[in-house]
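Hey, can you fold this?
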Amino acid sequence: MPREPAEFTFPFHSSHPLDPPAEYAALRADEPVARATLPNGHRVWLVTRYEDVRTVFADGRLSRQAITAPGAPKILPIATGSKSIFVMDPPEHTRLRRLVANAFTTRQIERLRPRIAELADQMVGRMLEQGPPGDLIEHVAEPLPITVICQLLGVPERDRAVFRDWTEVMLSFTAHTPEQIRSAVGQLRGYLAELVAHKQRNPADDLLTSLVEARDEDDALSTEELLAFGQTMLVAGYHATSAEIAHAVLNLVSMPDAVARLAADPARLPVAIEELLRYSQAGGGVGPVRIATEPVRVGDVTIQPGEAVLPCINSANRDDTVFAQPDRLDLDRERNPHVAFGHGVHHCLGAQLGRVELQVVLETLLRRLGEFSLAVEPQELAWRTGTAFARPLSLPLRWRVSTKEGAAC
């Protein structure tokens, strides 16, 4: 008789937040497309092998938009009823992405680099003044992404702290109740509606104003889509990058000579950053749920219409058929086709911005702190859990300040 497939509970729990759950390797080997139940009771197919994950990302018969229906399987409650680009299918996705893509081209993001570098230098400078030890989360990993995405969108500086708590609640798996999540969504949307009205009266040189003008002049997008895009950018542009900065630094300091090597040769940073992104566990390791609109073959399983699929990015990035010694952090890994930013038409719009922020932060830390290390034992760190992006609540560093900055600390 054929063996009945096992049923798993997802998300899995890891022995350490920097390591992938052991279940990923076991599933890749024995059951790469497996049944699982989410905390909200929804059932999904987990996809863990690299090629299968890319198939899920690229196959148009696996719909993101279908998860917005009430009662549809989803991992985050905020997807319900959303008009976000994050949960759109073509042609609506294509139309909205075309409207905003120019703001996220490599050329446009490179124009932001000097300002990002200025901010990073100021923030690391304040950490230097107050430490060591200095809390990277408080001084850099949290304020830098907030400031950058808010300046890009056009959110006034005085309001940036207002939405921080809302967005943290919105990204909860299990840390907050559905009622708390709905309340946070409502408050953020109310704030954005007021901000859009302000931009209409007082246009500025920012992305939100451009979208308001597209709505008013060209009827290129609806008010609902405009608000959803602003919400998506604030949530993803802040939390994802903040967590990636924290994980990158933690993974670097776990290797005795990594910081010294990069400090001596900062030109190695772009290659190192791709490996840090592949290796990272910051984002919970899953792409958005998709729902089959037709029968779709993934691996050895045929996904039936109406069934949900969850691609496991962190598992795909540890697939030994693609990456040699995948559980080794190799900062010299030249061939690195990771899927940390997804694949296909939904490849992350802010990928280049995230890369630049990570590169600038690490370059600034290496230049101004010299060789730095964790100021506490790794097991002493407290972590934010139950949310889409896991990171330490604080990340205290000690350092040896370079000769350019003054005496050693």
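Oh, and this one too while you're at it.
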Amino acid sequence: MKKNLPYSQFVGIFLLIADFIIIDFSCKLAYYLRFGSNTNHEDYYVSLFVIFNLAWIASALFNNVYNLETLFKFKVLLTKIFYAFVFHALLMFSYIISFKEHDFARLFLFYSYILAFDAIIFFRIIFILFLKYFKMAGINEKRVVIVGAGYAGNELYHYFIKDKSLGYRFMGFFDDAPEIPSLMIKGKIKHLKDYCIKENIDEIYYALSLTSNDLIKDLADFCDDNFIYFKIAPDFRGLVQKKVNIDFYENIPIMTFRREPLGIAFNRVVKRAFDIAFSLMVICFIFPFIVPVIAFLIKLESKGPIFFKQLRPGRKNKLFECYKFRTMRVNNQTELQATKADPRVTKVGKFLRKTSLDELPQFFNVLLGDMSVVGPRPNLITQLEEYSKIIDKYAVRHFVSPGITGYAQVNGYRGETKQVQLMQKRVEYDVMYMENWSFFLDLKIIFLTVWNMIKGEENAY
């Protein structure tokens, strides 16, 4: 059967092309607003148009702007596009500084960003409305049936009917011994083939036991012969209540309950190489300027050491000495979390915590291999003992090395955890990071961390 271009991929390519056109038109309109009909500068700005578009590709892909799953979540989409433009502006600024292209009119760049941002958002709104109408009107609708009126089939049925914009039209169940009462049961399995041909069914979902090898092969052959997609939705009830992943070792299917990109040796090498390179860059180029100033201010305000060392649980709960700049007056309550208006925190310490500069010494932990630049934040030993008993999957976050910054932190979950729910959310983001790790996700988290450092964080104290 000929494999068609996936729908989501087609939409992504279409939006990328549309963005190119919008950005090009915005730049030209910005040129006209700045210089009018004067074409004396036009050749000089052609190179900027090219760089502008290339930078957009990098920024848009980095921020996952073309992910179809977020297309209908307008708030999420708006946030992604905003971050894409911020990252794009940083790339353009780097280009202008690096190549000393200082002659570009600032007003031209301002007009370009305002026009491009507004035009892309407006186009997205129109496109989303069109796409919803397109799907709800039944155009490109996928007609589906489910073999098996049990738990898995019922779950799948509710997925198909919950949102018409998904593009599915559920036609009915087929089962010899249905477990659930339903008016949508069209008949027994022997009636399935005739019904599919008569009703032009596009997809058949098999939701029965995987032990019926002959039935599965028969239905798969029938689907191939009649250009119907055959998909299996196995019932994992009692085994797992979450997403599973299936890999193949040659012809042997291997099921895992969680995606583990860092379980692949190559990915671990890439992450470790980046950790070493990034840490050395920070230590060699930033430390000589910042550390002496911070050390002087710490010593000036209060007595005690410049650095603070504390045992923290790392990968596989192995304890290591975590380094920080001292932000508190010397005390005997180091296992207690800092609270708002904590009297132990010094004035200098409050600033360091607010800007996350107190974490800088942890780049030495990264070089030593105890930590990574990005990963779940290392909690206190007392927190490990407490939360591992009451929060599901808390220990999972220790499958990887802890990080100086993490996915939970850039999503607002940092600082004091007064409620168990707050730690639960941190754990969810940490596990989400582990399951979706990529080199570009690490870069994104680092960028957002720097951004949060600049603007300051409400929960950092």
